[in-house]
Amino acid sequence: MTDILALVFRTFSSQTGQNKDPSAGPPxxxxxxxxxxxxxxxxxxxxxxxxxxxxxSELGVRxxxxxxxxxxxxxxxxxxxxxxxxxEGLKKITFSYPRTxxxxxxxxxxxxxxxxxxxxxxxxxxxxxxxxPAVGSHVGFHSGEESRAAHLSALLCDTAAxxxxxxxxxxxxxxxxxxIGSFLSxxxxxxxxxxxxxxxxxxxxxxxxxQARCTLDQxxxxxxxxxxAQEAWHIYLSGTKIPEDCEEWPPLAQEWKLLIFPxxxxxxxxx
Length: 271
Fold this sequence. Notes:
- The chain is of the alpha/beta class.
- It has nine helices and nine strands.
């Protein structure tokens, strides 16, 4: 999944521009097949949508996008560059809106029944599903959330592994199946930290399953104003969990900077 995120960042970077070849620029990191985006909801959803549209348009793969609330519009940067995107790309994205974690589990478990299985599974705002009240639960508040986090993460990993086998048998060139989710930690709501998993038990569970982390930290210095931007963010790609058959992969470590301008445009820069 980190290879798709890197493609997104290069596509909308100041180095390549929107009308240049997105394959230019720094090489993609080794593809971890599951990535967790940790940070503010508004920005993480934009990154998820950029990943979905870029994967569908640039790579031609099918995408399953799950969210609790309906998506009203695409990020401004996608609307502005719609002419450069494959017009058939959006048709490859299936949006689903499960209201509860039970509905999400059921819909994820049924992905294998699709005649055209997705190569990318996206879950927006995992925290919304995991922190909902557990009806009839007699376990502790946090232990219940941790159990749901482990259950959902395990199902996502198993589903991705199964769909990867299906895609490989089809010979479509769309394997492996990747998973990306977003999560806002309670710790991040009050204290910015690149590694909040030590204090957030739910995030700690998710980190056991997701191979890579994409952390969003807002830059509150004067850099945004100096660049005539409305907001500036640091994006840290990190991860050390790799498949057993890919021992040669180095630990993942990349840093990008994101500038968001008043007109809604987004610009990524490799640091």
